[in-house]
Amino acid sequence: MRYGRIYNLYVRCYILTEIVNLIWDSWNNGRVIPKIPNHALPQTRKEAYAIQSDYCSKSKYPCFGWKIAATSLAGQQHIGVTSPIAGRLLKERVFSPNSSLLFGSNRMAVAEPEFAFKMKKTLFARKEEYKRKEVILAVDTLHLAVEIPDSRFEDFSTVGAIQLIIDNACAHELVIGPPVKSDWKHKELSKHNVTISTQGGSSNLGNGSNVLGDPRNALTWLVNELSKNNINLMAGETVTTGTCTIPIASQKNDIITADFGTLGAIQLSLC
Known about the structure:
Layout: H1 2-29, H2 45-58, E1 65-69, H3 73-79, E2 85-89, E3 94-95, E4 100-101, E5 110-119, H4 132-137, E6 139-148, H5 161-166, E7 173-176, E8 193-198, E9 203-207, H6 215-228, E10 238-243, E11 248-249, E12 255-259, E13 265-270
Parallel strand pairs: 1-10, 3-7, 4-13
Antiparallel strand pairs: 1-2, 5-6, 5-10, 5-11, 6-7, 8-9, 8-12, 12-13
């Protein structure tokens, strides 16, 4: 019996390694897959998040941080889930403002303006739920960002939350600015208007309330989601909290501007 359990564990580890390699290869080569077969799927979110950690191991750099997907009802409907999910941000896929990003075979073809927080204190996994005040006290700086998401699945809206977590919550590329200089800690980010537009005149307006009611709420959700899955949010990591507007459609040769009003703006181009 003991050898049977060891064998089953070995087979399971082999299957999970193959899943990691499949997603990683698809991501780096612009390919898509139908879905992961049911017999190979992780049974829990914890196991799916563990797969994400292997993407960081394959990266040449320490993990940059985390992204949150589906922090609004519209976002959840867009990818076919009923609650937010989290994904890893890889440093080699993070860019400074005014960067030109390769559009390539991106099938989601949208851009999302987001508030991002850099942590100054590690929040360790624990049984007790973190309160928002405790989480905010652990924040170092606020940043403005634009996410360019993508999926490794042919039809990301039908595969479900577990597969999308394995898909790194549709993480792809992020453009992020320097720390916001104004006194953001006393601003009501939930009421702060944000506009994202393309040079062709298309634009979407929203505000921080579209991010679980407030970007700070989304950050608190992320901390507790990680904690209950035995993951620490580390000092120095950055969390981008989800789109403030309906994602704007994008295409090759677009110039995209996210205007955060008095807090600043982020611009990028797609080539």
